[in-house]
């Protein structure tokens, strides 16, 4: 670990960590918007191996109804209905309320085009897979995974205090990640992203033919699709919190560390 004692700068992020970080950011952006385009083809989520006809296994449904001659967006979650007109189910398209699951700014393309959405989605899915594989290999070789990501016993003991510090916005600037950072990064990189990839593959008929037990592992393709969608929501929530923390911790310092690798720590700051 390189260090400039006079300025308090430390070399925090290796080149491969920085490259894969930005590759993930770009890939996940396009995966989210193209994924919502694909989801519009069947804006429902189920638990099990198939969608119900003689039975109801729906846990989420986004649709539209006509009431008193007007379109109204309705989203059902576990049997409870919510009016989501203007947001989900019925949205403003060029000044006209239209039956559509999501507004145009939330999908790629902005108009209904399942084929293009699938092409974009699959392209960036493989970029995500390649970036994750490169990061795992490089992090094992340079010990970044064990040193900075995997929580240790000491991190578990320090976690309550670290959570309290974050709640009070007492953010520290150290070379090493804090316990809460380690836990969140480990869950995203080692659990959420691999699960996202695995559930995505489970929805492929070709993969089902080659690896039939994969669908059984997740309780069926419909359950895998639901888990895929749920992980997407987790990643979106992580992204929002991550950006807020970057802004609160000092965006110039945080961005510099993820662009150049150099990070200014506490205690030695001029």
TrEMBL record:
Its placement in the membrane is given as: Multi-pass membrane protein
Q: Which residues cross the membrane?
A: 21-40, 119-137, 183-207, 227-249
- Quote the protein name from its UniProt record: Thiosulfate reductase cytochrome b subunit
To which species is this protein native? Aureimonas altamirensis DSM 21988
InterPro entries reported in the protein's UniProt record: Cyt_b561_bac/Ni-Hgenase, Di-haem_cyt_TM, Hydrogenase_cytochrome
Specify whether Transmembrane helix is a keyword of the entry.
yes
| Compartment(s) where it occurs, according to its Swiss-Prot or TrEMBL record | Cell membrane
Keyword annotations from UniProtKB, A to Z: Cell membrane, Membrane, Transmembrane, Transmembrane helix
Please list the residue ranges annotated as the Cytochrome b561 bacterial/Ni-hydrogenase domain.
12-261
Q: A Pfam family for this UniProt protein?
A: Ni_hydr_CYTB
Superkingdom is Bacteria
């Amino acid at each position: 670990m390189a260090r400039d004692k006079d300025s308090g700068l430390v070399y925090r992020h290796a080149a491969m960590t920085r490259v894969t970080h930005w590759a993930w950011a770009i890939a996940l952006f396009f995966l989210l918007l193209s994924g919502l385009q694909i989801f519009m083809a069947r804006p429902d989520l189920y638990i099990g191996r198939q969608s119900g006809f003689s039975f109801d296994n729906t846990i989420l449904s986004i649709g539209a109804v006509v009431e008193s001659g007007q379109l109204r967006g309705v989203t059902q979650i576990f049997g409870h209905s919510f009016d989501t007109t203007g947001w989900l189910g019925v949205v403003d398209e060029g000044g006209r309320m239209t039956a559509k699951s999501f507004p145009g700014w939330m999908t790629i393309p902005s108009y209904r085009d399942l084929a293009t959405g699938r092409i974009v989605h699959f392209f960036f899915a493989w970029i995500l897979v390649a970036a994750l594989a490169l990061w795992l290999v490089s992090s094992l070789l340079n010990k970044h995974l064990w040193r900075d990501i995997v929580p240790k016993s000491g991190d578990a003991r320090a976690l309550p205090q670290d959570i309290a510090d974050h709640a009070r916005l007492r953010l520290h600037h150290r070379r090493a990640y804090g316990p809460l950072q380690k836990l969140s990064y480990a869950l995203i990189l080692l659990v959420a992203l691999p699960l996202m990839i695995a559930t995505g593959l489970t929805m492929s008929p070709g993969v089902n033919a080659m690896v039939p037990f994969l669908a059984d592992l997740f309780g069926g393709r419909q359950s895998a699709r639901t888990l895929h969608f749920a992980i997407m929501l987790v990643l979106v929530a992580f992204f929002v919190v991550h950006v807020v923390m970057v802004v609160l911790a000092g965006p110039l310092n945080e961005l510099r560390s993820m662009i150049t690798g150099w990070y200014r720590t506490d205690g030695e700051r001029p």
